[in-house]
């Protein structure tokens, strides 16, 4: 479709062009030369949330409303229709796609009027019509489900392929050259196709597997890195015909050999101050002309080693567990053989019974705890972003991340099992504050800024903290973050950022230690509500931010003193274990060991990942990682 549109634009058949939310000047394949075609159009209008490459080339830029500000409608995959209602009034004078189209082709002066007109026949025209009110209340419109139709196809097994069946714009060639690589281009896992390039939260969100921030890299296999004598950050030149890019590499265990994965979305020339100067532009140079923008694309390219390095920042420098069984996993067969005490979840290791710490007397108070199910966790990092939004965690930038000063209160650690080229499994482990019963951080603070609350939280009193960082040095899990710079001042001085911060959470200034608090503001909100109603806090009434957003429901939170609570049952499960339990810290954040049903993938019974090569980047003294 894009090629057809471009051909029609070049032929002069398009006199007016409306671009609704896209950015084809940036991400259209270079072979289409969309920019040249756009110049041949007499009237060009772009609907965009901010200035981008396409809006710069158009005659008009219309501000695009956020989807939370707009009326619209939608259909689910099964055809069920729904009205899309705004959550807030528009902050600025802007338009949605529905409103712009309504102004052009419909007799409607707002998105709401357009939606009402669309559904007036089935839901009535009056505002108080019971059918319209019911649709708004239920969120779906009755009797709109698509009827299921059974289709049959006659397929020729070995027939010739038509041009429409081609999956990419280049003819595949055999990899008969040692410098030839198959190139796969995918949307970036955090900023997607570049539309979120100016979002600091997503730029600083560690990417899956590599944990790289503020950059895109070329993923290659360990065997290819060895063959070309490459290390992480070494720059290569990828050549497809006359089009080339230079990009740093990242070695990913398990990556296919003779193949390079590139990620689109970076290298934008028209973007805000956050996304400016980040990454390398990929799509418009190598993107194929067939398929959608988000589809996987393949090309054959030649790779040349440039001979220089580029600074690539990652938040996890070491992916060996060094025999400490941090993330534990086992097969379903192993679990069924010992369901009451699986060996992979509880390997033989001495756990001290005696301690210099006294047990905390909870009496009648709550004892908050958390359990994370590693079988359910997919390492998507939704919990990381949710925690950042909930707790006003600042974005510190690439330079500070390079000094190991990233501020996330929860991180996702990644480990591998097996040889680097063919690891048998990838392990993802979310790591927030462990909320230890015998917390090493509490006893070393000289001003009692970190202490144990009545309901078991290892809490921080920011006004007491003087920044000695003794607590961070004494934390074996490295989950405390020191605020080196004053990031809170910008929130106070810039009026446009006031709505960004959560008013229930204190803004932290320079020189204080921060960490996970089990979303104490949510705990207090539920406690006040229970006191007003003269009742106990119900199980499940409190959901932490990470728990609420987890798509796999891998996180359980609640009162460990409630023997019937979900988190108590998880703590009593045979798969439950505490990280570094041999240290005697008695964490109240525990894990359920991962269970696999694919027996062949488990190479060894000890769950060790010691055969994976260490990332070459060195740790700094400011903030070491636990692993």
TrEMBL record:
Query: Residue spans with biased composition (Polar residues)?
Result: 605-618
The record's Gene3D superfamilies line, in alphabetical order, gives: 2.40.40.20, 3.30.70.20, 3.40.50.740, Formate dehydrogenase/DMSO reductase
Q: Where is the 4Fe-4S ferredoxin-type domain?
A: 368-398, 423-455
Record InterPro entries:
4Fe4S_Fe-S-bd (IPR017896), Asp_de-COase-like_dom_sf (IPR009010)
Q: Which SUPFAM superfamilies match?
A: 4Fe-4S ferredoxins (SSF54862), ADC-like (SSF50692), Formate dehydrogenase/DMSO reductase, domains 1-3 (SSF53706)
* Segments for region (Disordered): 152-177, 600-627
CDD domains, per database record? MopB_CT_PHLH, PsrB
**Record PANTHER family:** GLUTAMATE SYNTHASE [NADPH] SMALL CHAIN, GLUTAMATE SYNTHASE [NADPH] SMALL CHAIN-RELATED
Protein name (Swiss-Prot/TrEMBL): 4Fe-4S ferredoxin-type domain-containing protein
- Species: Novipirellula rosea
């Amino acid at each position: 479709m894009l090629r057809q549109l471009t051909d029609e634009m070049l032929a002069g058949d398009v006199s007016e062009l409306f671009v609704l939310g896209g950015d084809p000047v940036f991400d259209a394949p270079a072979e289409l030369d969309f920019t040249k075609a756009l110049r041949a159009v007499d009237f060009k209008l772009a609907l965009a949330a901010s200035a981008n490459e396409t809006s710069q080339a158009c005659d008009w830029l219309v501000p695009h409303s956020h989807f939370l500000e707009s009326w619209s409608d939608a259909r689910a995959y099964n055809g069920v229709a729904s009205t899309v209602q705004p959550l807030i009034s528009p902050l600025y004078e802007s338009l949605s796609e529905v409103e712009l189209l309504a102004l052009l082709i419909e007799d409607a002066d707002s998105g709401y009027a357009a939606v009402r007109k669309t559904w007036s026949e089935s839901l009535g025209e009056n505002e108080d019509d019971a059918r319209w009110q019911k649709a708004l209340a239920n969120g779906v419109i009755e009797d709109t489900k698509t009827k299921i139709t059974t289709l049959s196809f006659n397929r020729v097994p070995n027939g010739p392929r038509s041009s429409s069946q081609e999956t990419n714009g280049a003819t595949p060639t055999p990899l008969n050259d040692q410098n030839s690589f198959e190139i796969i281009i995918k949307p970036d896992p955090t900023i997607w196709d570049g539309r979120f390039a100016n979002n600091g939260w997503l730029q600083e969100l560690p990417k899956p597997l590599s944990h790289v921030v503020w950059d895109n890299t070329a993923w290659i296999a360990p065997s290819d890195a060895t063959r070309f004598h490459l290390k992480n950050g070494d720059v290569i030149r990828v050549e497809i015909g006359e089009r080339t890019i230079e990009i740093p590499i990242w070695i990913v265990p398990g990556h296919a050999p003779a193949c390079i994965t590139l990620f689109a979305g970076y290298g934008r020339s028209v973007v805000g101050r956050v996304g400016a100067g980040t990454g390398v532009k990929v799509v418009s140079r190598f993107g194929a002309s067939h398929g959608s923008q988000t589809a996987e694309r393949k090309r054959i390219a030649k790779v040349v080693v440039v001979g220089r390095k580029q600074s690539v920042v990652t938040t996890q420098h070491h992916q060996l567990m060094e025999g400490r069984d941090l993330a534990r996993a086992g097969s379903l067969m192993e679990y069924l053989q010992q369901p009451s005490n699986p060996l992979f979840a509880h390997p033989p290791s001495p756990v001290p019974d005696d301690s210099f710490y006294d047990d905390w007397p909870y009496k009648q108070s709550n004892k908050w705890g958390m359990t994370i199910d590693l079988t359910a966790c997919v390492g998507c990092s939704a919990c990381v972003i949710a925690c950042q939004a909930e707790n006003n965690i600042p974005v510190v930038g690439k330079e500070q991340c390079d000094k190991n000063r990233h501020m996330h209160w929860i991180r996702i650690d990644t480990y591998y099992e097996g040889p680097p080229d063919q690891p048998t499994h990838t392990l993802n482990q979310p790591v927030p504050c462990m909320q230890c019963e015998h917390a090493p951080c509490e006893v070393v603070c000289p001003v009692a800024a970190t202490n144990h609350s009545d309901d078991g939280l290892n809490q921080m009193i920011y006004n007491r903290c003087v920044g000695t960082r003794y607590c961070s040095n004494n934390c074996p899990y490295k989950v405390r973050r020191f605020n080196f710079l004053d990031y809170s001042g910008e929130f106070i001085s810039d009026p446009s950022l006031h709505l960004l911060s959560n008013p229930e959470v204190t803004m932290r200034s320079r020189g204080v230690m921060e960490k996970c608090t089990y979303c104490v503001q949510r705990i207090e909100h539920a406690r006040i509500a229970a006191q007003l109603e003269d009742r106990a806090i119900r199980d499940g009434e409190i959901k932490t931010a990470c728990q609420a957003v987890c798509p796999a429901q891998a996180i359980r939170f609640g009162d460990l003193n409630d023997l019937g609570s979900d988190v108590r049952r998880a703590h009593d499960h045979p798969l439950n274990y505490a990280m570094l339990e041999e240290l005697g810290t008695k964490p109240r954040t525990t894990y359920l060991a991962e269970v696999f049903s694919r027996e062949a993938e488990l190479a060894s019974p000890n769950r060790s990942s010691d055969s994976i090569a260490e990332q070459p980047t060195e740790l700094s003294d400011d903030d070491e990682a636990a692993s």
